[in-house]
Design goal:
heterotrimer, A mainly alpha, B alpha+beta, C alpha/beta, A: mainly alpha, 3 helical TM bundles of succinate and fumarate reductases, about 75% helix, C: alpha/beta, seven-stranded mixed sheet, about 35% helix, about 15% strand, globular, binds flavin-adenine dinucleotide, binds protoporphyrin IX containing FE, binds iron/sulfur cluster, binds FE3-S4 cluster
Amino acid sequence: MKHDRLHKSVDAYLKLHNSSTPARLDFVQSVTGFILALFIMGHILFEATILISKDAMYAMTRFFEGYYFFGETYPGIISFLAAAIFIILIVHTLAALRKFPSNYRQYSIFRKHSAEFRHNDTTLWLWQVITGFMMFFLASVHLYMMMTNPGDIGPFASADRIVSGWMWPLYLVLLISVVLHTFIGLYRLALKWGWFEGKKPKESRKVMKKIMIAAIVFYIGIGLAALGAYIVIGIEHSDKVGARYHPTEGGQQ
Amino acid sequence: MNALTKGLMMKDKAARKIKINILRFDPNIPNDRPRIDMFELEEAPGMTLFIALNDIREHHDASLKFDFVCRAGICGSCSMLINGRPGLACRTLTSTMEPEIMLAPLPLFELIGDLSVYTGNWMRGLNERLETWIHTQEEVDVERLEERMEPELAEEIYELDRCIECGCCVAGCGTIQMREEFVGAVGLNKIARYRLDPRDKRDDDDYYELVGDEDGVFGCMTLLGCEDVCPKELPLQSKIAYLRRKMVEVGLNKKD
Amino acid sequence: MKVTYTDVLVIGGGLAGLRTATGVKERGHDVILLTLVPPKRSHSAAAQGGMQASLGNSVMGRGDNEDVHFEDTIKGSDWGADQKVARMFVNTAPKAIRELAAWGVPWNRVKKGGRQAIINAEKVTITEEEDAHGLITARDFGGTKKWRTCYTSDGTGHSMLYAVDNKVHEQGIEVRERMEAIALIHENDRCYGAVVRNLMTGELVAYIAKATTIATGGYGRIYSVSTNAVICQGTGQAIALETGVATLGNMEAIQFHPTAIVPVGILTTEGCRGDGGVLRDVDGYRFMPDYEPEKKELASRDVVSRRMTEHMRKGKGVPSRYGDHLWLDITILGRKHIEKNLREVKEICENFLGIDPAEEWIPVRPTQHYSMGGIRTDHRGESQTLKGLYSVGEAACWDLHGFNRLGGNSVSETVVAGMLVSEYISDFCESEESAINVSTSVIEAALKCEQDKLDRLINNKDGEDTYVLRRAMEKIMMEKVGIFRNGKDLKEAVDELEQLIFRSHNIEVTRSKSLAANPALVNAYRTQMMLKVALTVAYGALLRTESRGAHSREDFPERNDKEWLNRTIMRWKDPDMTMPTVSYEDIEVEEMELPPGFRGYGKDMTIHHPKTEERQAMVDTMRLQTEEEGLDRIEVQRTLMPYSELLPEKYQGRNERLDERFDDER
Ligand SMILES: Cc1cc2nc3c(=O)[nH]c(=O)nc-3n(C[C@H](O)[C@H](O)[C@H](O)COP(=O)(O)OP(=O)(O)OC[C@H]3O[C@@H](n4cnc5c(N)ncnc54)[C@H](O)[C@@H]3O)c2cc1C
Ligand code: HEM
Ligand code: HEM
Ligand code: SF4
Ligand code: F3S
Ligand code: FES
C-alpha cells in the first residue's frame, strides 16, 4: 500500500520510498539509445563511402585513425572508439533488459496479444526486442573484432573480411536489425518523451511514422549497396587476401 | 440530398446475414470449457452490437452474459474484444464490419462469464492504489463564493477527466498483459489529471511515490495501443510523455 | 444463512446514493453501499446538460437567486411540487455545487470579456464581467428565467459522479458491486434492511441496518423506448411497493423528451432545434408550424413531444422495423455549424446511426426520459409509512418535481438530497429509535421467501416466456400510457397489465437453469417487479382525470386544481393481489408561498382551487407589508412560508453571491 505524505498514518512514516533508480534507468536507456542511434546513422553513411570510391573509403578510414590530425595513423583510436561504443551498448542493453519479457510465459503472452490485436506500434515493439536481442550477439562479435583488429579496416581489408572471412551473412542480418532497431527506437523515443508533439500529437505521430519508414528504407538501401560493393571488391580481391589497399594516383596520401 | 432518397431508410433493404462468433465460458459452472458459439442473425439498419447481442439473448440463448448499462458510449460497461480489438460494443455498428464478427471478453480482467468481465473491481483497486481524489487539508465553506479557476485550466482538466474506466486501454496494452502490476494508461492519465488540478495539494514528490517506478510511468514502453483504442480519444500518449518528463526530473534530483 | 450488519445500508450507487453514503460516513456511521454496477457506471453519468444552482456568476445569470430558482421549479412542476421541499432544495443547491467544486468537478468557468453565442437562432455577443472571471459559469436551459445550469462541457453527470465516487474511495466506504436488493426486510412497520442477491454467484445475503436508503434511480425501462440506461428498471420502487407498507407517489408523472434517436433512444440535445433545426414527417414536410404557428419546433419539451405523437398518429410517421419515427433535419445549419456547435450530436449520429447529420436527416421520436414519481417520503427522505426506510434521488418522490421536472434540476436534486437526507439518517441512527429489534426468524423467513421465489422460477415447466411478457408491457406503456393519454386506452392498459401480472406468476426461465450469474433468471424476476411498477403508473394515470405537467389527458385537457391538487399515493397491500390500492394526499394551498397560477404555455385552461384566490391575496399583502417594513428578500420569504428549520442546521445558512457578498467582504 502506498500513501502520500498528506496522509499522516503510521504507514506514511514506515513506508518504503520509491527509489530514484527507475527514473535513472529510463533516462539512461534513452540517452544511450539516442547516442547509439546517432552513431549508427553516421556509421552506415561513413562506411558507405565505398560506394563513392575505394579512395574515399580509405580516406575515411584514415580520418578515423587520426591521420589528418596527427599526420600518422593510430588504429588505437578505433579500438578506443569501439570500446566506448561497446560500453554504451552494454549499458543500453542492461537498461533495456528490464523491458524484455522476463520469461517465456511473458513472451508468449505478448506474442499472442500482438498477433490478436494486430496493432502496428505494438508489433513494432516486438521487432525492436527481437532485433535488439539479435544485435546483442552480432554487434558484440563485430565490435570485438573492431576492438582487437583496429588496423584491419580499409577497402580491401574490410572486403576480404566480408567475403573471404565470411562475415557478410552476419553483416546482412546485423544491418537489417540495426536499422530497424534504430529508427523504430528513435520514433518511439520521440513519442515517449513527447518531442515534436506540436498542437496535434496524433497528426505529428503520423508524420513521424512516415519519416521512420523513409529512414529505414533509405538506410537499408545504402547499407545493402555498400555491402554489395564490399562483396564485389572482396570477390575480385579473393586471391590476394591480406594485401592492403594503396590509394590511386589522384587519391590523397 | 435528403435521407429519404438515400439508403438509410429504416425500411429494410435486402438485409445482410451476419454471423456473430462469441467466445463463451462460465467459470461458475464446474467443468465448463471455453468454446465458440456462432449465432446467425439478420442485420437491421442501425444495428449496433448492443442490439445484436440482446437479439441473441432474446431469441437464441437467454443465458448469454454481457454488460450494457448506458448503451450510449458513456458508461464504459460494454468494452470487449471486437475482432481482436478492444472497443465499446454499444457504439459499434455491425454495418461497419465484415459479416463475420468475433467477440471475446477483455483479457486480464476477472471473468464473470462469456463477454462479461469485472472491470469495475479492477478500476476500484487502481483508484485506491493511486488515491485518485483531491488531497487537501483546506476546509471548504460551501456558503462562500467558490475558489476561482482559469476557464482554460478547467477545460484542460475536464479533457482528462473524461476517462470512463472502460478498460480498453488496459486490454490494448502489451506491457500490462505481461506485467499485471503496471498501472496502465488509465492510471497514468488519472495522475496527470490530478497533477493539473490546483485543488489537489500533492506535489511531484508525492506523485513520484505513486508512479515513479516500473509499475508506474517508467513501466510504459510507449506501445500506444492505449492511445489508439481509447474510445474517448484521450490524449494518453502526450500525457504519459509529460508525466514521464516530470517524474524523471524528480528521480534525477533524488538523493537515494 | 448469511447476514451482514451495518448502521446504514444504501441501495444504489448513483449520485444520490453516493452522496448519501459520504454524508453518513462523515457523521461517523458505518455504511455499506450496494449497487448493480460499479458506481461510476450508474446512469447519473449520462447527464450531459448540467446542474441547476443559482450562483448568478455569468451575466446571463446575474440577479439569480433562490427565489427565482424556486419560482421556476414550482411553475415547472405545474404546482405539483412540495413547496417546502423546493425551498430546501434551492437553498442547498449552491452549497452542493460549491462542495462538488472542492471535490474536484472541473466546472466550466466564466471567462471575462465577450464571446459569441446563439440564442434563439440568432448570433449574439455576451460580455462577461471582470469580477466573475474564474467563477462557475452557467448555460441556458428550458423553463428557467436565468441562465442557471452549471456544466462541465458535455459531461456534467460524468464529472459529478466521478468526483463523488472518488470521495467515497477516500473515505473508505464499503461499496459492494454487482449486488441487487431484491426485497426489503421489515417488521411492525419498521424497515431493517434488505435481501440482496449477488449477481455473480447468485448467493442471497441479508443486510441488516438501522436505516435503509433506496437510491436506485428511475423506472424508465418499463417503456419500450427510453433515454434511460438499461438498468433503470424500477426495482427500487418495486421492493418498496412489495413491502405492502411503504408507498409510492405520483407514479404516473413521466417525462418525455422529443428527440431521441431511433432505434436506441439516445438523446440528441435540444440545441439542435434551438439553433434552427426542424422536424419533418414521412413526406419530408415540416409539420410543427401547423400545430404551433408561433413557437414551432421551439415550444416546450412536452408540447413538442405531444405534437409529434399526434402527427405520427395521423399516419405521417416514417415506418421502420423499430416502429414509426420522424426526422430531425439539421442539414440546413451547415456543416461548419454542426461540427463546431453540435459536435456531440454529430458523434452520436456517426457512432450509433452511421450517418452524417450535415448530409442526412436524423431519425427521432419522443422517448421516455424521466420519472418524477417514486418512493413517497417526507421532506427528510423517510418513508411516511415504513420507519427506517429512506429514499433519495430519482427513485424518490419527496416531492421536488411535481408533475414536471425542470432540466438540470435532477442531478442537482440527487446531490442536495444526499446532503440533507444523510443528516436526517445520521440523526436517526443516533437516536434510540434506531435500535435493531428484528427477530432472526423474520430475517430467515425473508431469505427463504426470496430463495423459494427463485427456485420456483428455475424449476417451473411449460410456463410463460419472460420476454413475451416484457415486450407486451413495454408496448402497452408506450402506446397507451405514453405522452397523450385517454381514458379508454388507459383502461385497456390497466386491464392488460393486470393480466400480464397474473401471467407473470407462471414465468419459466428457459434454456438457462443456473442460479448463479444467469441473465435469464434476472430478467424473469425483474420483469415480475417491473410489471407492478408499470401498473402503478397506468393506474395512477387512469384515475387522474386532468392534465398536469407531463401527465396529459386528451379527454381532460385542463389542469384541475379543484379536484386534483394532490399526490397519488400507491400501496400494494397484499403480494397476491394484482392491483395496488390508491389514496390521495392533498397539497395545501393555504401553505403555499407561490399559489397555483398559469404556467405560461398555450391557453390557460386551469380550473382553480377555491382557496387559490384567497391565498394569493394573502401572499400579496404579506409581501407588500414586509417589503414596506424594509425586510430583505430572505426575511420576506420567511414570513410567507417558513422552512429553514426543516433543514439540518449546517445547511441553513445563506449563500454568498457576487451581488450578495457577505459583510466581511464588502
Ligand atoms: C440521457 C439523460 C440525460 C440527462 N441529463 C440530465 C441533465 O442534464 N441534468 C439533470 O439534472 N438531469 C439529467 N438527467 C436525469 C439524471 O441523470 C438522473 O435523474 C439522475 O442522475 C439520477 O440519479 P440517481 O442517483 O437517483 O440514480 P442513478 O444514477 O440511476 O443510480 C441508480 C443506482 O442504483 C443502483 N441500483 C438500481 N437498482 C438496484 C437494486 N435493486 N439493488 C442495488 N442497486 C440498484 C444502480 O446500480 C445505480 O448505481 C438525464 C437523464 C438522462 C436519461
Ligand atoms: C547499436 C545498437 C543499438 C541502438 C542504436 C539502439 C537504439 C535504441 C533506441 C534509440 C531505443 C529507444 C530508447 C528508449 O525507448 O528509451 C532503444 C530501445 C531499446 N533497445 Fe536498443 N539500441 C541498440 C542496441 C540494443 C541492443 C543490443 C539491445 C538488446 C539486447 C537493445 C534493446 C532495446 C530494447 C528492448 C529497447 C526498447 C526499450 C523500451 O521500449 O522501453 N538495443 N534502442
Ligand atoms: C566503434 C565501433 C565500430 C567500428 C569501428 C565499426 C567499423 C565498421 C567497419 C569498418 C565496417 C566495414 C566492414 C568491416 O570492415 O568489417 C563495419 C560494418 C558494419 N558495422 Fe560497424 N563498426 C562499429 C560499431 C558497429 C556497431 C555498434 C554496429 C551495430 C550494432 C555496427 C554495425 C555494422 C554493420 C551492420 C556493418 C555492415 C554495413 C553494411 O552492410 O553496409 N557497427 N563497421
Ligand atoms: S483512458 Fe480511455 S481506454 Fe482507458 S479506461 Fe479511460 S476511457 Fe477507457
Ligand atoms: S499501450 Fe501501454 S505501454 Fe504505455 S503507451 Fe500505452 S500504456
Ligand atoms: S453500455 Fe455504456 S459505454 Fe457501452
